Amino acid sequence: MSESTSNELEQQESSTPVADHDDTATKSPVSATATKSRSSSLVPWLVVLILLLVIAAAGWFGYRHLVPMHTQHQQALENLRNEQTATQAELEQLQQALESTSGQVNEQLEQALSAQEQQLRQQLQAQQSQLADYRLAVESVQAELANLDMSQESNWRIFEAHELTGRAATKLWIEQDPQASLAFLRLAQSHLVALNNPAHMAARQALANDIAALEQLPEAQVTDVSLTLGALRDRISRSTWYQQLAMTDKEQAPTADDTWLANLKRSANTLLQQFVRVQRRDTPVEPLIADAYFDVVQQRLLLQLQLAQQAAMQGEQTLFETTLEEAINQLQVLEGQITDTSITDVVKQLTELSQVTLRPDYPTQLEATNQLERLVRQQNVGG
User: Disordered: where is this region (predicted)?
Assistant: First the structure.
């Protein structure tokens, strides 16, 4: 429109005389003002269009980039919640398993102790009953001995010595009681000594050799070992184990001037770690082991010591050594990992116990058995 107006103005100027030049000059500013007003009215629309384009581009960018990032963030949060829920469920299962295992172990230990106590009472009652029977038998025999003549007394004493030797063998190899066997052999020897017959010297010498062999046997360590294991079990059950945290290089390396102040600082640091769990930042960070792990290891160690104690009371040397070896291996794994400084002492005591012989090696046979059987055969032939 502005171009057509300008063309018309040029045609008018070319056809209009010079006298009309003033009118044309007065009309041209008006047309220029109208053109400027039209141009200025288009500028806001252009700005609005540019803003709409910028807003559309920003919305498209946000839809393409920010929405997926928000979705990924929500998914990550959901995964973390699921993992936390699963971890909590596993911890609850482990706690339940630990409580169940602890209850079962305590119940088994109580049953084993009750059965062992009942067995010991029965054995004691049986031994007391046997001793009472022996006293009655001896008293009855002594009462009848006055009515026998010398030949009958000699036969009776030989048969009695033979019977007592057989009982001594039973006590030694079956009941594993060398003291009772020694008492029977001494009683058999007293019968032959009472006869004072030179023909019985070989049997008396065999009885003396058997008595000397049993007297030289070391005492059985069953009771001492059992009591020591019980004390160790009580000591471990009352201790609380936590993970031993690493010290700094400055604390680990001993200084050249190892004074009492440096020793006091190290001792104070060790004591502090037993109450306050501090991990230094100037050393590589080590992950803490769950306290439930040490509780399970402690219960397993107590069970091993209980089995070793039971094996010791029953005189089973192989089972006793195997069980103690397993307990020692468990404690050696824990050395340096927990705050309990007495682990090394416990390992040393268990190592010494594993080298103890519960019962001594008994003689394979009694020499007096053959000699007394010979005398019995002679009496039967002579009778």
Answer: 1-34
Query: Residue 243 forms beta bridges with which residues?
Result: 338
Distance (Å) of CA 227 to CA 40, 144, 293: 110, 47, 28
Q: In the listed set 110, 126, 160, which residue is the last one of a domain according to the structure?
A: 110
Do 202 and 325 belong together in one domain?
Answer: no
Q: Are 166 and 369 in contact (CB under 8 A)?
A: yes
Query: Based on the domain organization, do 345 and 333 belong to the same domain?
Result: yes
12: in domain: no
Residue 356 DSSP one-character state: -
State the pLDDT at residue 382. Answer: 56
pTM passes above 0.85: no
Residue-number span of the structural domain to which 66 is assigned = 1-7+27-110
pLDDT digits (tens, 9 = 90+) for 151-182: 677 788 888 988 999 898 888 878 778 888 88
66 lies in the same domain as 117: no
pLDDT tens digit sequence for 216-239: 776 666 777 888 888 888 888 877
Count Cβ atoms within 10 A of the Cβ of residue 236 and give its class: 0-12 exposed, 13-18 middle, 19 or more buried: buried
Give yes or no: residues 168 and 245 share one domain: no
Q: Which of 312, 328, 287, 342 is nearest to 116 (CA)?
A: 312
Q: Which helix (H) or strand (E) holds 224?
A: helix 222-237
Instruction: List the structure tokens of 197.
Output: 């017959």
